[in-house]
Amino acid sequence: MRLSAAFVLCALVLSPLSAAYGQDIRDEAPIRPAKLMVLERSDDVMHRRFFGRVTARNTVNLSFRAGGQIEELPVREGEFVRAGDVLGKLDPAPFERAVRETKAQLDQTERQLKRLSELGAGIVPQADIDDARTARDVAQVGYDDAIDSLEDATLVAPFDALISQRVADRFATIAAGEPIVRAHDMSEVQIEIKAPEILFRKFGEQPVFSANAQLSHDGPLYPLEFREFTAEATEVGQSYLVTFAVMAETPDYLLPGSSATVLTDISRGDGNGVLILPASALRFTPEGGAQVLVFQPDDGSEDIGTLQAHDVEIEPADGTRFRMLKGPEVGATIVAAGASMLADKARVRRFEGLSGDGGQP
């Protein structure tokens, strides 16, 4: 009994000491290092690879503005022509006859007007003189039209062009405006891609494209410059046609319809950046909600402080990054790496990194 009483007495004496000692150990526990980052808006650049198709600056179907039988069609498919080169001629005989006929009618009306004008209004009614003048003007219009039709019987290239297709053949009788040849203006080589609708929802209606084209496997990159995009999505695939211009000299074999690989960096064009979070900055509640840990520095110290959990709304950006839709304000300092291993209210110190990078990711 004496031994038991002594043991109890000793335990009662040492118990407060042990509790105090344990409390000291907890208070003096080392503060964990944490890699931190400051929330800042970024351009949210997305890297994408597209299949591209080479096109010309302009593609038109050329035709005669007059109808007739094709007498000459010297142009060949796949041939480059210069502006002003003759592409084809119609049989000129009908047009020459029309010129002679309308010229004779014009001469006749001019003689009639001259005769009546010399007689004067005192001898012939003024109305007859006015009618003769009107007839002369109508005949002049007919003659001018005949001259124009004769000139239109010759088809010339309106610009330096590549003739990709000859639609009509020699000796064929065609109507005015009927396509004869298909011509491409190759003064600027362009490349078209089909951008999905989701890009425009994510980056706004005027996204900024920075692009390069690869014309062959493992070939050099050719810089591209954005030109335009169709503002109406295609019925199949819900995509928009985006056009770029090649800003370097291209190989001779590059023809309309050739394939190309287009490497693009896409960002917002409205100047409003977004908040991007790395996956390592996120922790999740048992209910599945996403959180970040905001660093609150101690008074008098910028490197030691307490973490506070904040709920956030996120959506995927690219790779292992997420776009923050709702959460802490710009300028807040959060844990950048290992957030899932840290607890709310935890005490941490800024991890400066092995290279003195200030703990920034």
UniProtKB/TrEMBL annotation:
Domain of life assignment: Bacteria
Domain Multidrug resistance protein MdtA-like barrel-sandwich hybrid residue range list: 58-178
Organism: Paracoccus onchidii
SUPFAM superfamilies: HlyD-like secretion proteins (SSF111369)
Protein name per UniProt: Efflux RND transporter periplasmic adaptor subunit
NCBIfam families found in the cross-reference section: RND_mfp
Family as reported in the entry's similarity comment: Belongs to the membrane fusion protein (MFP) (TC 8.A.1) family.
UniProt-listed PANTHER family: EFFLUX RND TRANSPORTER PERIPLASMIC ADAPTOR SUBUNIT, MULTIDRUG RESISTANCE PROTEIN MDTA
Keywords: Signal
Signal peptide range in chain numbering: 1-20
